[in-house]
Write a structure and sequence with these properties.
Keywords: Membrane, Transmembrane, Transmembrane helix. The protein is mostly helical and 120 residues long. The protein has four helices and no strands. The radius of gyration is 15 Å and the shape is globular.
Length: 120
């Protein structure tokens, strides 16, 4: 059932995802270590936190268990993507960081679109 609360949470989650992607992209493209660190820790980390909170709220409002395979994949892959960005912020971003980050984001999208479940 879609209520105004669900729509507000969806909007917040979308904003969080956009912040995460924008901050990660800025970090991977930044020239200096300070710019990479600022984009990673102030923008991408905040976006990931908002997206995760929104996801937990949506699961709760929709009575979806957090143990669904597609939710666990989304959490794990988004955490791995953030680790790649944090590593790139500290060591300098290379082509490998960008490729791995893009692959992880595609994996997250696939999990959210196809929604695999345990035992299916």
């Amino acid at each position: 059932m879609e209520t105004p609360a669900v729509h507000l949470v969806l909007l917040a989650k979308f904003a969080g995802v956009m912040l995460f992607i924008a901050g990660s992209g800025a970090s991977l493209l930044a020239k200096t270590r300070e710019e990479r660190r600022r984009a990673t820790h102030q923008i991408a980390s905040t976006g990931l936190f908002i997206a995760w909170c929104g996801g937990f709220a949506l699961a709760t409002l929709s009575a979806i268990p957090l143990t669904e395979l597609w939710i666990l994949l989304g959490l794990g892959l988004s955490l791995a993507a953030h680790v790649v960005v944090v590593t790139a912020a500290e060591r300098g971003a290379g082509r490998g960081h960008v490729i791995v980050f893009a692959a992880l984001i595609l994996g997250i999208l696939a999990a959210m679109i196809f929604r695999p479940v345990f035992g299916a």
